[in-house]
Amino acid sequence: MTQEFIVETAKRSLELTILVSAPMLGFGLVIGVAVSIFQAVTSIQEMTLSFIPKIVGVMVAAVLFFPWMLQMLMSFTSEIFMNIPQYVK
Prior knowledge:
Blueprint: H1 3-42, H2 51-82, H3 84-88
Helix pairs in contact: 1-2
């Protein structure tokens, strides 16, 4: 194994991690901004108000995107396992 191979594999792993987590983080961000705007408009300054909508939004995103996330992770993992003989050389 060369340094380039290790760096490339680490880069692909980090890219996949960011790609797989992006839908849930995006839903949480959008809901957080919407709740913050709602709190600013209504002058409700309850700190715990944003937690429940964010949790529900992230769970909805996880349910909606789970098949896609699972397919991405399985293809990456199977590619790693199938190429083990090449990595050992």
